[in-house]
Amino acid sequence: MKVFKFGGASINTIERIKNTANIIETYKGEQLLIIISAMGKTTNALEKVADAFFNKKKDLALQLFEQVKETHLTTLKYLITLNWQQAENQLKNFFTEVEWLLHDKPVREYDYYYDQIVCCGELLSTTLVSIYLNEIGVKNRWIDVRDILRTDDNFRDAYVDWKYTSEKIKTDIKPLFNDTNMVITQGFIGATDENESTTLGREGSDFSAAIFANLLDAESQTIWKDVEAVMNADPKEFTDVKNIVELSYREVIEMAYYGAQVIHPNTIKPLENKNIPLHVRSFLNPSLPGTVISNKPTHNLPPIIVLKKQQVLMALSSKDFSFVEEKPLSQLYDIFDRIKIRPNLLQHGAIGLLCCLDDKSEKIDKLALAASEIFNVQLEKNLTLLTIRHYTEEKIKELTAGKKILLEQKTTETIQVLMR
Ligand code: ASP
Ligand code: MG
Fold first, then answer.
1. What is the mean pLDDT of the chain?
2. From atom 5 of ligand 1, which residue's Cα is the shortest distance away?
3. Residues 14, 131: one domain?
4. Mind listing the pLDDT tens digit for each residue in 304-346?
5. Could you tell me if 206 and 66 lie in one domain?
6. Integer CA distances (angstroms), 14 to 22, 71, 394, in order
7. What percent of the chain shows pLDDT beyond 70?
8. How far, in Å, is the centroid of ligand 2 from the Cα of 220?
9. Measuring from atom 6 of ligand 1, which residue has the nearest CA?
10. What is the CA(37)–ligand 2 centre distance, in A?
11. pTM here?
12. Is residue 285 in some structural domain?
């Protein structure tokens, strides 16, 4: 069995849905479990609905939701001919689920409402694609993943209950393949034991696909994207970018850790644990080989470049010129833990520390305030953190030319430079 994941960009127009269906059709004889994201920018649109609702702007929330409905009903109209009535009924059920809630007043926390509203994006998109595929003769079963993927109630960043989910996949998903070759379901969403919808964090459907791949012992997982392959740098930031044919799990984890937006960072572990290769391929050009990520160590990789913008340098120094010893350090780590912020880079000196952090303003303010009880604190904002894996001296020179370097850390594999 193979697990496929299609992102929102692969189904954001009628033409693209048909293209995605064509790709799926070429695998018709094989067992496939397919995870599909919400169409295009639906998740962003639904986030706005949740915001409006929570800010007690009910009319605005309903109006914004109306636009989401329109988009899906229009897609339905142009995509589905025979079974449009069935499709419309199913979409309307999901619309009602949300509208029912929008007519209420918010009494619980924001994250709860976010999940109840935002989850409908994938329910709508998968319904449309599933019915369309059945209509063109690619027989499949649609499953509401909320009956399968159980999570805790940490809304917006829910933690997967592997034991329950594994049981459900055994009893409810595996037997489906006795009657069909194809099961279509949603990524990114799940449900609690009280049937409340949850989400796994933005871009979470790569992770959902990996959960299924792991629990189904899939032979491989493929993420179909709008790029030719994983590249050694972001093509929006750099010219001469290269496709990488092969990568190791380890390398991808490292890249994600340093901030490369290739694949959701949680995706690798479930695959690595069962040694399931991950393919990244282009839905625009499925004849290209893309990238394969596996346990095979890779050699001769080009320099892999990650830029993180909006960085803050927090300089901490002891108040009385004493050494920074274990106690203040462990206090500082406790603060990181409490505020849930992780430094991207940390350098320790005799009477001070330098930390580079993402500029999440609210958290930085809290952090600076808490740290100021132990240290003198200075902040500098608007910095860029450059990471190069498999660096060469030439590359470092090229990418730091004309910049003021504030902090640098180097291992044999990786260099990180914080620059102004
Ligand atoms: N639709 C969700 C998002 O845009 C999840 C995903 O696509 O992975 O974040
Ligand atoms: Mg996406």
1. 96
2. 203
3. yes
4. 999 999 999 999 998 888 877 888 889 999 999 999 899 999 9
5. yes
6. 12, 11, 46
7. 100
8. 20
9. 203
10. 6
11. 0.91
12. no
Q: Residue 52's closest CA among 43, 65, 67?
A: 65
**Residue 364 and residue 216 share a domain:** no
Which of 208, 226, 244 is where one domain is finished? 226
Residue 259 in contact with residue 305, Cβ under 8 Å?
A: no
- At 414 the pLDDT is 96
Å from CA of 307 to ligand 2 middle: 20
Residue 271 lies in a domain: no
Q: Is residue 248 part of a domain?
A: no
Pairing of strands 2-6, 32-36: parallel
Looking at the CA of residue 205, tell me the nearest atom of ligand 1.
Answer: 8
Is the CB of 205 inside a 6 Å radius of any atom of ligand 1?
A: yes
Residues 210 and 69 in one domain: yes
Q: Is 199 in the pocket of ligand 1 (CB under 6 A)?
A: no
CATH number at residue 90: 3.40.1160.10
Per-residue confidence (pLDDT) for residue 163, from 0 to 100:
98
If 0-12 CB within 10 Å is exposed, 13-18 middle and 19+ buried, where does residue 400 land?
A: middle
Q: Which of 205, 226, 247 is the last residue of a domain?
A: 226
**Closest ligand relative to 188 C-alpha:** 1
Span from the CA of 57 to the centroid of ligand 1 (angstroms): 25
- Ligand 1 and 7: CB distance under 6 A: yes
Based on the fold, state whether residues 179 and 308 are members of the same structural domain. no
Q: For residue 413, give the CATH number of its domain.
A: 3.30.2130.10
Distance 406 CA to ligand 1 centre (A): 35
Based on the structure, what is the number of domains in the chain? 2
Looking from the CA of residue 207, the nearest atom of ligand 1 is 8
Same domain membership, residue 319 and residue 210? no
What is the domain range of residue 68? 2-226
Instruction: Tell me whether residue 265 is in a domain.
Output: no
Percent of the chain with pLDDT over 90: 90
Ligand closest to CA 209: 1
